[in-house]
Specification:
By secondary structure, this protein is an alpha+beta fold. The protein has two domains: 136 residues, no CATH class; 61 residues, Arc Repressor Mutant, subunit A (Orthogonal Bundle). The protein is built from six helices and eight strands; from the N terminus they run βαβββαββαββααα. Strand 3 and strand 4 form a beta hairpin. The longest helix has 24 residues.
């Protein structure tokens, strides 16, 4: 959750790509398969969505019901606000601001419980929703296997100082050898660190 303005604590901006489950009746995607702009106002059990389709002029507006498997309900439960950036062929790019790695893990876990596809695209350290980026981590440069290993390691707390997940536990969950997973994680970390330093120097 992002605290009140004026708190100088850095936050994480989380960019996610999410895809609906079968039968997901959400006006974010039902109004247009692809949209350049989306505005969502969800209050209680009702939402109003404005969508600007990518392939036609004008806005489409629709009201919907916020149910337990809705994107908006997950964000309500975690007390953070989804910023829907766009929709591409039914996949929603959404941004949220959270106050730590535990919040990222919780958000991703809860979204995966109700949606078919949830992909962590980017993490950025910021001072709050109105601030500029300080340090960016762009995950698009990773291979699918590197991303899978890194996301599982983060989700299980492998990199936490007090985490109890071992490399063997993670490798068993992915059904690969410890050496293969170790190589993936090292390669992923090297890619992300190199990218972060290049962004700082720009």
């Amino acid at each position: 959750m992002v605290e009140a303005a004026g708190d100088d604590t850095p936050y994480l901006r989380v960019d996610l790509e999410v895809g609906p489950s079968d039968g997901w009746d959400c006006p974010i995607v039902s109004q247009a398969d692809s949209a350049a702009a989306v505005a969502v106002n969800a209050v209680g059990d009702e939402c109003t969505v404005e969508v600007r389709p990518s392939d036609e002029p004008g806005l489409r507006r629709e009201r919907g019901e916020v149910t337990d498997d809705c994107l908006c309900r997950v964000f309500q439960r975690l007390d953070c606000v989804p910023h829907v950036r766009r929709v591409e062929e039914g996949t929603v790019l959404v941004t949220a601001y959270v106050d730590g790695r535990d919040a990222v893990r919780g958000l991703v876990s809860e979204l995966r419980a109700v949606l078919d596809r949830v992909r962590l695209v980017r993490l950025v350290v910021v001072d709050g929703p109105e601030s500029t980026d300080r340090t960016a981590v762009d995950l698009s440069a990773l291979t699918p296997k590197q991303r899978e290993g890194l996301e599982l390691a983060v989700a299980r707390g492998y990199f936490d100082a007090d985490g109890d997940a071992s490399l063997g536990d993670l490798a068993a969950e992915l059904d690969i050898s410890k050496s293969a997973l170790s190589q993936r994680l090292r390669a992923a970390q090297a890619t992300l660190v190199t990218d972060a330093f290049e962004r700082v120097e720009e």
